[in-house]
Amino acid sequence: MSTIVWIVGALVVIAAGGYVFRLLGQMLTGNAPKYRDMSFGVAFGYVLAVALVIGTVWFYLQPTVVEVNGQQTAVASVTFFRWAVQAVILGSVAAYWFKFVGKNFGPEASRKAFRTMPLTASFGILIIGVYTFVAIFAGQIAVTTIIGLAIGFMVILAASRNRLNKDSHAGIGFLLFAILVICSVMYFVGPLAPYGQEEILGAANILPGGNTATGGDPAYPLGTDSIGRDILSRLIYGAQNTVGIAFVTTVLAFAIGVTLGFLAATLGGWLDQLLSRAVDVLMAIPSLIFALLLMTIASVWAPRLGIPLTYFMVLIIAVIDSTRVFRLSRAVASNIVVMDYIEAAKLRGEGLGYLIFKEILPNATAPLLAEFGLRFCFVFLTIAALSFLGVGIQPPLSDWGTMVKDLAPFINFAQFAPLAAVTPLLAAGAIALLTVAVNFVVDWMLHKSSGLKE
Amino acid sequence: MSELLEIRNLRLEGRSDEQWNPIINGVDLTLKKGEVLGLIGESGAGKSTLGLAAMGFTRDGVRISSGTVEFDGIDLVNASAAVKRGLLGKRIAYVAQSAAASFNPAHKIIDQHVEAPVQHGVESRAASIKDGIALYERLRLPNPGEIGFRYPHQVSGGQLQRAMTAMAMSCRPDLIIFDEPTTALDVTTQIEVLASVRDIVEQFDTAAIYITHDLAVVAQMADTIKVLLKGDEVETAETREMLSSPKEDYTKSLWAVRSFERPTKPAVNTGATPVVSIRNVDAAYGTVPVLHDVSFDIHEGRTVAVVGESGSGKSTTARCITGLLPPKKGEVLFDGEVLPANYKQRNKHQLRQAQMIYQMADTALNPRMAIGQIISRPVQFYTGLTGKGLRRRVDQLLDQIELEPDQYYNRLPSELSGGQKQRIGIARALAAEPKFIICDEVTSALDQLVAEGILRLLAKLQDSLKLSYMFITHDLATVRAISDEVVVMKEGRVVEQGEKRAMFTPPHHAYTDLLLSSVPEMDPDWLTNLLNERGVDNIGDAAVGKM
Fold it and tell me: Which residues of A touch B382 (CB under 8 A)?
């Protein structure tokens, strides 16, 4: 009862504050248009925002440890709230600096992109960059890989010499060279993960934090799990496994979906009907349940055929997700197919390949790229969900979904031991962070390709 | 109060590429009660921006940087939102270019009509509906009693434009801004809208700003004309004075466009084989018949203009020739040989001989391909040239369409103006080295000066390359300028065909007559005279006789 009184009272105070704020603004600025035409709702919003900021700061400053019955007890809510606020501030600052660097260094095209992107997109790109870096250099990089890359890059550069103009050729050359340098440096730095992903170490259930006073160990900064594997190492290898497999799956889904979608849109007729109805049937089955069903069948086949279950998983998720990609690429392509330049190309006598790759694909890249980002998130979450359910990526490979499942019981400690509850949240947070980052970037790209102005 | 609207030294800026660029540079404008001002200029001259600024409104990304807009003594630039809300819709109304896009498709026309009067408290809903029906009647809409109770998609474009004018009138405003209200309409429909707009403006003594790029239209509507060029005022004068003795060079050049006409070519030998011959073609979309027994010939080096309203089957005829729509009956002959009905069955040589230039250059050029790629593809495809030879041929083609090769080779279509894009379309057609080109409304999306340049280029190319053109258009000024022969189509049938000179001298077929007489002329009395002639009754008694 008293809670309701408090909420209503606060709203009344804020409403009154809004009225006073607008009135003061009008009086002090001599009726400037901004305050004169301000609606009451907007004024209320301003005051509400200020009230929320004050509330946030007040809550942030509450003590994290209180004495109950002469015993030191951690206050979980304040602890977690502090971490969240610190993470947001840290992320914003990092994104700001990343944007600042991008704005002032590099070629003009990328500088302009950085100038116009919102802070969220810069944050997203930074996070994706970090994940990629961590995923690639989780283990020791082999000399043969570096040599192979160097040869491959040389072939690419030689092939592109006459097809690109000088500037973009030099740009690509610089980029490839930079990649080689980073790889070589990382060869000497060694693996990012301090231990192997399946390495079972002496101590189990060490709390994160690396502080012996709170049950941590400096050797394992993020602690160890219930059978004594280093959580930091498993998180780093998890990036390689989960993100890598999700990426491969998404690429496969796009290869299937885009090819069939473009064919359906360009050729039309019975092929279009056949493919579209087939996709309708596949889409009618709830995707996670369908994936679970197929995975159960595959887990019987896999050992018999001697093919790792992961391959089946990639294929199954790719096929299921390619239905969504098919829908989108068919819709996008059928809007492009009716354009006059396609008609001109058809009347010229151009073949199907030219129509699809030269005329349609370049005009469909923007929506498809945006969809790639979103689809990647969904695939990634599906893999995590399947692993959580026990049919996804199999141990001893480390994977974030499995890590959440294994450590999930610790969440019950949240009330009195915040540090212990953190262990399952680390993997879950890694998943959430990547999903958010990709969405930020996709939002920005969609905004750009839709031609909207701020 | 003698001045209803007074704009002083108005400057507007638009935001693009992270900076503010000027759109209107200090324009003055005054309007008395009951006066109609015509605002003309090319696209991008700032006509619409100025029209909207007269209501104290700017689009997103546009701002008024200095100057004043006073409406009946009220400063609109600094007026509060509440004051503007009281004026807009009630005392100032706006009629947009495309009524079809401006009506909300989810509500009946009358519900949108009564919104302003009811919101402004001018009259009750019932009274407003009654008034709306009276207005529909006055605007000579068919079935005025029930047309308002239809949804926008159930009404034709011309009727919708008139319904929008009625809607603007619903509160009996003092000022209406008309933003190109007839640009999207056929000539025969345009007449009806023009007549009703002029009638109603005079009856209620409403002041109006009439924005258009068509000189002949503005001559019928306006008391004074203001010419804009890139945000600057070129000239303002009373209509008759402006038409008879324009002062500035730019205005004169606008007037001179209409005088372009090619010399008449000698008649064709009766024995010669036509380049393209269409014989008794019937065509249908699904089961809906579109063409009925269409036949005509196109001879070497000549231009045949195909004229008619939208929906008359002009473009469908072109689709039958190119093979995109195989005819149900009849055949298309090229150099005396029957072409396969479907383009997929035609060989490279047959495809190469007939090329097409499209109406909308924006959709006709792949936005992701550079100009050089767009033109070199057909050259490479048909002639097999590569490397330096290919580049030389593309440069030659760019020279032919009067664009500097080195400057344009690597540009994207989005970096070109409308006229330049259309030239690229021509170059792409020429790249195949065809004998015959179909020009589908190639100038209708362009400003008059630019359109004239395109027509002159096409004429020049025809003379030097012996090309034959099939010129689809609804604009009779274009027909007069470029054609040798004319084919008039209506509802999928050829109504009349013959040499241009014969077609433009009476007697005509009744439909040709209607089409010809509906083309606005520069004479300010033209509309009045025409309406008298046609004996249309009740075009506002005040309207006839005045002007």
Answer: 348
CA distance B415 to chain A (A): 16
Q: Where in the sequence is the domain holding B63, given as residue range(s)?
A: 3-256
Work out the end-to-end distance of chain A between its first and last CA atoms, rounded to an integer number of angstroms: 45
List C-alpha distances in Å: B463 to A186, B84, B496, B498: 69, 58, 27, 21
Q: Which of B346, B365, B382 sits opposite A341 (nearest CB)?
A: B365
Is A339–B363 a contact, with Cβ atoms under 8 angstroms apart?
Answer: yes
CB contact under 8 A, A348 and B410: no
Calculate the CA B258 to chain-centre distance: 15
- Per residue in B86-141, pLDDT (tens digit) is 888 888 999 887 777 888 889 999 999 998 899 888 889 999 999 999 888 887 78
Give the list of residues 6+ apart from residue A146 with CB closer than 8 angstroms, or none. Answer: A180, A183, A184, A187
| Interchain proximity A349–B360, CB inside 8 Å | no
Residues B57 and B189 in one domain: yes
Report, as an integer, the average pLDDT of B149-164: 85
Query: Number of folded domains in chain B?
Result: 2
ipTM of the complex as predicted: 0.77
* pLDDT over 80 at B462, yes or no: yes
* Domain annotation covers residue A63: no
Least confident of A332-341, B270-279, B371-380, B390-399: B270-279
Question: Which among B80, B343, B410 has the least Cβ separation from residue A347?
Answer: B343
- pLDDT > 90: percent of chain A: 27
Query: CB of A224 within 8 A of CB of A205?
Result: yes
Q: Do B324 and A347 touch (CB under 8 A)?
A: yes
In a domain, A131, yes or no: no
Q: Counting Cβ atoms within 10 Å, is residue A94 exposed (0-12), middle (13-18) or buried (19+)?
A: middle
Q: Which residues of A touch B15 (CB under 8 A)?
A: 453
CATH number of the domain that residue B122 is part of: 3.40.50.300
Range from A137-151, A375-389, B255-269, B412-426 carrying the lowest mean pLDDT: B255-269
**Chain A residues inside the 8 Å CB shell of B346:** 349
